[in-house]
Amino acid sequence: MKKLTTALIISSLFSLNAIAQELPNITILGTGGTIAGSAEKSTDVTGYKAGEIAVSTLIEAVPQIVDVANVDGIQVANTSSSNIDSKILLEMAKTANSLLQKDTSGVVITHGTDTTEETAFFMDLVNQTDKPIVVVGAMRPATAISADGPMNLLNAVKLASDESAHGRGTMVLLNDNIGAAYYTSKTSSISLDTFKAHDQGFLGTFAGGEPKFYYEPAKVMGKPTFDVSKLESLPKVDIVYSYQNMGPEIIDAIVESGADGIVVAGSGNGSVPSAVREKISQLNEDGYPVVLSTRTGSGFVTAKSHAIGSGVLNPQKARIMLMLALTETQDVKELPVYFGTQS
């Protein structure tokens, strides 16, 4: 009887090992945010502190994950997403690419929603493989009643594990919606249904606990890919908001502070007051890059003679694009190609 029991245990262990080997390998990079946030009261969904819970704890809170993939976690950071900087972005990119170039099937990044679109866009531009990177977060902290983080995390792992997710670039996953990182942005400060791409829509959704895509994989027209494996820092690019009565002094201040480039959130199709336009035009003639985007939240900013049009990119994404583009060229005549607005 003892021999039979031992044999059954050994057989079970071999079976479990075989199942584990058949499951995809997914690594979760933890960076903090609301999904790892904590508050004193379970009803507090705004006064919490972000980045309080380790990624290992987030994984343990969703035991169903072990049925989806072989999951491990790496704590890259544990902070509010407003504190994510170039150093953290580069560490994420290098870690993700190193994993994806081996036997890792996909990477999930837990992240605060406030700057998810910036990190997701950055990762979309630096992924050196066609394997999926999924950026996921939550609008309610982990301590809240009906916290949305656990289901979002489970769905993110399912998405990163799915073969049909390959070749779609980096994706943003929240509230059952699958969005392309290139286009998706946060559109509401507190609503659960906050991430949208106004003009392009979603890539797919979750139905019955499984990802359902609306389209075959497709690439963004003209999207560049950057190799950041040898970079230790990124160029400094600042954003300035355009408004009535705006003067050129703020542009001067940013240049004098040492910024390598500027993105202006202009009105409409990248419009700015005349005095500011003259300053931007002079900087452009001097070879200093200024990108004109729009503060409207959607739409295309066309090619400009006096600056660089941002195309479909909002100010925060235009900043990321300019930072990366400046690692390859500082020529203001070449930079519009990265935005799809070359004349």
Automatic annotation (TrEMBL):
Ranges for domain L-asparaginase N-terminal: 25-218
Assigned protein family: Belongs to the asparaginase 1 family.
Keywords, ordered alphabetically: Hydrolase, Signal
Pfam families listed in its UniProt record: Asparaginase, Asparaginase_C
Gene Ontology annotations of biological process type: asparagine metabolic process
Residues binding substrate, per UniProt: 81, 113-114
Organism: Vibrio inusitatus NBRC 102082
Residues of the signal peptide: 1-20
InterPro entries noted in UniProt: AsnASE_II, Asp/glu_Ase-like_sf, Asparaginase/glutaminase-like, Asparaginase/glutaminase_AS1, Asparaginase_C, L-asparaginase_C, L-asparaginase_N, L-asparaginase_N_sf
Superkingdom classification of source: Bacteria
Entry keyword Lipid biosynthesis: no
Active-site residues, Swiss-Prot/TrEMBL: 34 (o-isoaspartyl threonine intermediate), 34
Protein name, as recorded: L-asparaginase 2
One MF annotation (Gene Ontology) recorded for this entry: asparaginase activity
Domain Asparaginase/glutaminase C-terminal: 236-339
